[in-house]
Amino acid sequence: MFKIPTPYLVNPLLELLYSPIVSAIGNAAKVVYLSRLLENGINEIRHYTPDDIGMLASQALQLPMPTKLNKLKKTHPEGFFYLNEIQRMG
Question: What is the number of domains present in the chain?
Answer without folding.
Answer: 1
